[in-house]
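Write out the bound-state structure for S-adenosylmethionine.
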Amino acid sequence: MEKSGINPKTVILMAATRVKFASWLAAQGIKTGAEIGVAAGEYSLPLCNALEGPIYLVDPWKTYPKSIYNDMANVVQVEHDMRFRYVNSFIKARGLNAKTMRMTSAEAAEEFEPASLDFVYIDANHGYEFVIIDLEAWWDKVRPGGFVCGHDFSSDTVNSALADFIGIKGDWRTLLIITEERDIQLSKDEGILTMRENQTEEYQKKYEHMPPMPMSFAIEKT
Ligand SMILES: C[S@@+](CC[C@H](N)C(=O)[O-])C[C@H]1O[C@@H](n2cnc3c(N)ncnc32)[C@H](O)[C@@H]1O
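---
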């Protein structure tokens, strides 16, 4: 931590795979939280398997105009309906301690008390203003010492929204975790941490079976 000049309240951490990251969360005593942006539940399953729950799975499962949501995940309505049914069916079939919330991130956040969750995992609309909305909506729902996590930090819009949000907040009240990327360089620029990564398929395959990066520094919660 000190080596890279990071504020001790701030931790950026990566795991070799998202699945390992879910187990790592469990090992930190993380139990309940929300995944924001669920789609077909590809990550919900490892999250729910690893954690005691309840895990809240938030997604409107709704088609948006491209001008609002330009992403492969913005599928046609019939596909969204199918994904919603599929996620509910695997929750039921596997007896998972999870609940779907078919609504937007901001709507769902209103249903939670401040500091009531151990973590959130944000992976919804990656547009700049939506990432800001998600961070605003969920930041205070995570208890001190919990984790605000997210996916696709490599996306420019996610990256800059995050930097601006942290800039506005002035400090990192909650530990922030970015997962998956192994080859990162940390740098500190006016208190904002940036991360570069290599996410090619070949690269991911190469590290798939490697143990996660050393994480001892990440336990430094103050
Ligand atoms: C990238 S996908 C999620 C992938 C999933 N987390 C996984 O790892 O497999 C993004 C999802 O965000 C959802 N989404 C879009 N806008 C949203 C919003 N305002 N609130 C919550 N979810 C939203 C989309 O419907 C889509 O299913």
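---
The pocket of S-adenosylmethionine is lined by residues 35-39, 42-43, 58-61, 69, 73, 104-105, 123-125, 130 (CB under 6 Å).
Residues 77-94 form the longest helix (18 residues).
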